[in-house]
Amino acid sequence: MATEQQTPAGENSPRAVKSGVIGIIGRPSAGKSSLVNRICGYKVSIVSPYPQTTRTRIRGIYTEPRGQLLFLDTPGYHLSEKKLNQGYQEVVTESLPECDALLYIRDVTRPAGDEEAAILALVQNSGLPWVAALNKVDALTEAGDSTRPQADPAAASDGGKHAGRGRQSGGGRPRRDSPEVHAAKMAAARAAAAAAAAAPTPDPAELGWTTPGDHPPAAAVSISAETGAGVPALLEALFSVAPEGEPMYPAEYYTDQDPQFRIAEVIREQAIKRTSQEVPHAIYVDIADAEYDAASETLSVRAFLIVERESQKGIVVGKGGEKIKAIRTGALRQLKELFSYRIKLDLRVKVQPKWRQRAGTIRKITRGWEQ
Ligand SMILES: Nc1nc2c(ncn2[C@@H]2O[C@H](COP(=O)(O)OP(=O)(O)OP(=O)(O)O)[C@@H](O)[C@H]2O)c(=O)[nH]1
């Protein structure tokens, strides 16, 4: 199967001098997924308002002339407040053998409580080199300091998750732009993202950050995953702690997930977004087959949206098939941005009672872990 679309950084196809696995650690909602998506420039983690959406530990890969960074985006949704310390311990312990360095992300808009102290202690006790990112400085700006960089309202509306990519705006049926308009919009978005990234951020000391403990970070950088401010300085720090080495993946990869898994995730995200609250956890996507035709550069995919009950099927199919059509169209729009080749999608809904209790099915939907 063909590889996924090149990242802007991948166009340079550099000879990497640094190659590091960076474990991202931080409280739930600190902005871990937003930052990985911002750095990698493409959607890596799926985003939804429902908890426990992230079923797998998803990696983002960033390649540029300085080298390659592989990010482990640790899911935090499922950790109850009570179990938080224990949960993080497990995440850190599981991740440690794979990591060369840690990136600790702190949300500066939330007061640091015991949980933050516990996470920070784990990071320090890991013995690994680490970098601190003080995130969401744009929110402080919005609170009243006009000397600080303002959030880009366009980026703010989607949490920066679609950075640098053209998006449809407004309600109603989205219109497709002509190639010229699309190119102009992409160029404007890239320029805006570059300006935002270069915007000054406050000194961490101004935010009340003091170097903690006896294993301090290699650097502390204030950033906004949403606007991109401070992200170049953060990358500089991450490359400084990454070991020298050959790249782990080809430069054009931005995730090591299997394309079929990514397609399934995109379809699932669309289904979650477009169905009512009781359905999301009852949905999984099975890719029945996927065949690539090199001549037409087309991947033909047959996929099933699987639900547990007939009533759920009715919801997912919608009146006159409206809902499933919208899910399919929405998924195709996303996939077009993620893959360099064309994707044909045959999408159907199937009832499979109690699929959540079947070991084989569970293995299938969590296979992102096993790659
Ligand atoms: N204002 C502002 N909001 C941000 C920023 N980064 C992330 N957010 C918002 O914070 C919320 C949580 O962001 P995520 O990226 O999902 O956080 P996470 O750490 O991956 O969350 P878990 O997966 O639950 O651990 C979302 O609503 C984001 O839009 C930022 O730099 N500024």
From TrEMBL:
<dbReference type="InterPro" id="IPR027417">
    <property type="entry name" value="P-loop_NTPase"/>
</dbReference>
<keyword id="KW-0997">Cell inner membrane</keyword>
<feature type="region of interest" description="G3">
    <location>
        <begin position="73"/>
        <end position="76"/>
    </location>
</feature>
<feature type="region of interest" description="G5">
    <location>
        <begin position="223"/>
        <end position="225"/>
    </location>
</feature>
<feature type="binding site">
    <location>
        <begin position="26"/>
        <end position="33"/>
    </location>
    <ligand>
        <name>GTP</name>
    </ligand>
</feature>
<dbReference type="InterPro" id="IPR009019">
    <property type="entry name" value="KH_sf_prok-type"/>
</dbReference>
<feature type="domain" description="KH type-2">
    <location>
        <begin position="267"/>
        <end position="353"/>
    </location>
</feature>
<feature type="domain" description="Era-type G">
    <location>
        <begin position="18"/>
        <end position="244"/>
    </location>
</feature>
<keyword id="KW-0690">Ribosome biogenesis</keyword>
<feature type="region of interest" description="G1">
    <location>
        <begin position="26"/>
        <end position="33"/>
    </location>
</feature>
<protein>
    <recommendedName>
        <fullName>GTPase Era</fullName>
    </recommendedName>
</protein>
<dbReference type="GO" id="GO:0005829">
    <property type="term" value="C:cytosol"/>
</dbReference>
<keyword id="KW-0342">GTP-binding</keyword>
<keyword id="KW-0694">RNA-binding</keyword>
<keyword id="KW-0963">Cytoplasm</keyword>
<feature type="binding site">
    <location>
        <begin position="135"/>
        <end position="138"/>
    </location>
    <ligand>
        <name>GTP</name>
    </ligand>
</feature>
<dbReference type="InterPro" id="IPR015946">
    <property type="entry name" value="KH_dom-like_a/b"/>
</dbReference>
<dbReference type="GO" id="GO:0043024">
    <property type="term" value="F:ribosomal small subunit binding"/>
</dbReference>
<feature type="region of interest" description="Disordered">
    <location>
        <begin position="143"/>
        <end position="220"/>
    </location>
</feature>
<comment type="similarity">
    <text>Belongs to the TRAFAC class TrmE-Era-EngA-EngB-Septin-like GTPase superfamily. Era GTPase family.</text>
</comment>
<keyword id="KW-0547">Nucleotide-binding</keyword>
<feature type="binding site">
    <location>
        <begin position="73"/>
        <end position="77"/>
    </location>
    <ligand>
        <name>GTP</name>
    </ligand>
</feature>
<feature type="region of interest" description="G2">
    <location>
        <begin position="52"/>
        <end position="56"/>
    </location>
</feature>
<dbReference type="Pfam" id="PF01926">
    <property type="entry name" value="MMR_HSR1"/>
</dbReference>
<comment type="subunit">
    <text>Monomer.</text>
</comment>
<dbReference type="InterPro" id="IPR005225">
    <property type="entry name" value="Small_GTP-bd"/>
</dbReference>
<dbReference type="InterPro" id="IPR030388">
    <property type="entry name" value="G_ERA_dom"/>
</dbReference>
<feature type="compositionally biased region" description="Basic and acidic residues">
    <location>
        <begin position="174"/>
        <end position="183"/>
    </location>
</feature>
<keyword id="KW-1003">Cell membrane</keyword>
<dbReference type="InterPro" id="IPR004044">
    <property type="entry name" value="KH_dom_type_2"/>
</dbReference>
<feature type="region of interest" description="G4">
    <location>
        <begin position="135"/>
        <end position="138"/>
    </location>
</feature>
<dbReference type="GO" id="GO:0005886">
    <property type="term" value="C:plasma membrane"/>
</dbReference>
<keyword id="KW-0472">Membrane</keyword>
<dbReference type="InterPro" id="IPR005662">
    <property type="entry name" value="GTPase_Era-like"/>
</dbReference>
<dbReference type="GO" id="GO:0005525">
    <property type="term" value="F:GTP binding"/>
</dbReference>
<dbReference type="GO" id="GO:0070181">
    <property type="term" value="F:small ribosomal subunit rRNA binding"/>
</dbReference>
<feature type="compositionally biased region" description="Low complexity">
    <location>
        <begin position="184"/>
        <end position="199"/>
    </location>
</feature>
<dbReference type="InterPro" id="IPR006073">
    <property type="entry name" value="GTP-bd"/>
</dbReference>
<keyword id="KW-0699">rRNA-binding</keyword>
<dbReference type="GO" id="GO:0000028">
    <property type="term" value="P:ribosomal small subunit assembly"/>
</dbReference>
<comment type="function">
    <text>An essential GTPase that binds both GDP and GTP, with rapid nucleotide exchange. Plays a role in 16S rRNA processing and 30S ribosomal subunit biogenesis and possibly also in cell cycle regulation and energy metabolism.</text>
</comment>
<dbReference type="GO" id="GO:0003924">
    <property type="term" value="F:GTPase activity"/>
</dbReference>
